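Feature request, filed as a ticket because there's no other form

It would be nice if the structure record came with a short human-readable summary line next to the tokens. Right now we just get the raw output. Example of a typical job, pasted below so the devs can see what we mean:
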Amino acid sequence: MPARMEESPCAYPWDMTSVKVCGMTNLADAEHAAAHGAWAIGLIHHRESPRHVDPEVAEEIGAALKRRCEIAGVFVNSTLEEVIDAADRENLTLLQFHGDEGPSFCIEARRRTGARVMKALRVRSGEDIQAAEAFRTDFHLFDAHRRGTPGGTGESFDWELLAGRRSKVPMVLAGGLKPENVAEAIEIVKPYAVDVVSGVEAEPGRKDHAKVEAFLAAAGVELPSQVTTT
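Raw output as currently delivered:
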């Protein structure tokens, strides 16, 4: 797993952009993404989301993919105890916070679980990007802003707002990404990773495996040598 950088400008010195495939609700989709080179898979714990994962399925996925990729738990204003419990049961290695969690909550969650932390921020202007610097987390995720919706909108935002960002915190880009536009997004933003949900779905909560593979290829992820395609 990549280590956190001590000094990291916008153009991170990675050879390849990593990919997180989020909104997993079944083991088959999670296994497929991991086998085809995804850096991380995401398990959504927000009950109002159409991609909310059943706790038993989350535990199954966490057990199967342990040490194979990053296993991210996505939370929206969960309590610290709920986060700690899920991290323990599901082998979470990454905690992604999409709600009103403050800097101290993020620090304590990392301390109590040992998992790395990604704070998500919804972007309307450059001020939202600058506000991320209050969070000394392992990653900053930038997503589109839609009032009342914490994420998974399928909408993008002005990527040029991120083009001049300089920060010590690696950046993850989300919002409206799909196989047809992810290469352009990477060229403009140069993120550490990109995060996709609806852009690779057959329907909410179920992945289209061909779209997942196309997205990974468009992002520059090399197909692992042990995987064969038909």
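Something like this underneath would help us a lot:
Helices lie at 27-35, 55-65, 80-90, 103-113, 126-131, 182-189, 209-218.
The first helix runs from residue 27 to 35.
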